[in-house]
Design goal:
Distance between the termini: 55 Å
Largest sheet: 5 strands, mixed
Strand order of the largest sheet: 3-1-2-4-5
Helix content: 40-55%
Strand content: 5-15%
Radius of gyration: 21 Å
Oligomer: single chain
Length: about 240
């Protein structure tokens, strides 16, 4: 009888095991609104930003640097407003974070730890990694991201590589976005937002840069799988899949 009773015990409360991914705040100072149209952009760092801001500006200028108070004032003055955010494929967003580190987005001491402990070799100033070396370093970075998002490294989780689902949950502390768009269908998504607020959709330009081209040269199944392993939460929440 004792064995049967103990078998039903859940000493670790497994159905309520917490998500150890770091929580994000609403990041309201980063929001960008159209000045003349009732539409608000809630950017995710590492996903498309400047092209979307340029698109908003073409609606008649933008407003930025909001506080909770000024954002509420903006909303009250614009009945029927719409808020939106834009997702990027996790592998492409992780590579964008990797590019930012290459360009000096981390102190030298941290770069040394990243190389020594996690095998992520970043180029020195003015140095360019060859594709094979870049692939190995980026693969190590993806494995580092898995540990970092699980709270298993000494590094803080940067907004540029935090999970997109956690970022959107952070938005919801103030107000969730009305619409979640995706980079691969962004023109159609923004046209939908424009139709929702009753304005003509401006043209959208999504230029490709050196970071994009560098990923295209090394992208393969192992990198795709490592990205899925690091960002299981985003793949499950948003239905991402390998592009090749």
């Amino acid at each position: 009888a004792m064995e049967q009773a103990r078998a039903r015990l859940d000493r670790f409360n497994l159905p309520r095991t917490p998500n150890f991914g770091p929580r994000r705040n609403a990041a309201i100072p980063g929001y960008v609104a159209a000045r003349e149209a009732p539409v608000l952009f809630m950017p995710i760092k590492g996903a498309p930003m400047q092209p979307v801001i340029d698109w908003l500006a073409s609606l008649g200028g933008v407003e930025r640097e909001f506080t909770h108070k000024t954002l509420r004032q903006w909303k009250r003055a614009r009945p029927g407003h719409r808020g939106f955010t834009v997702l990027r494929h996790p592998l492409e967003r992780a590579h964008r974070a990797f590019c930012a580190l290459e360009e000096g987005g981390m102190q030298q001491e941290q770069r040394n730890v990243l190389a020594r402990v996690h095998g992520v070799t970043l180029p020195r100033a003015g140095e360019v990694l060859e594709p094979a070396a870049r692939r190995e370093s980026f693969l190590a970075f993806l494995r580092f991201l898995k540990r970092n998002l699980a709270g298993q490294t000494g590094f803080r989780t940067d907004a540029g590589w935090a999970s997109q689902s956690a970022t959107i949950q952070g938005f919801a502390q103030f107000q969730p976005p009305d619409v979640i768009l995706r980079e691969e269908s962004l023109a159609e998504g923004l046209a939908f937002v424009a139709a929702e607020i009753g304005v003509a959709a401006p043209d959208l330009t999504l230029p490709q840069d050196d970071c994009d081209r560098a990923l295209e040269r090394i992208r393969d199944g192992e990198l795709e799988e490592a990205a899925r392993d690091a960002y299981q939460r985003d793949y499950m929440a948003f239905g991402f899949f390998a592009k090749r």
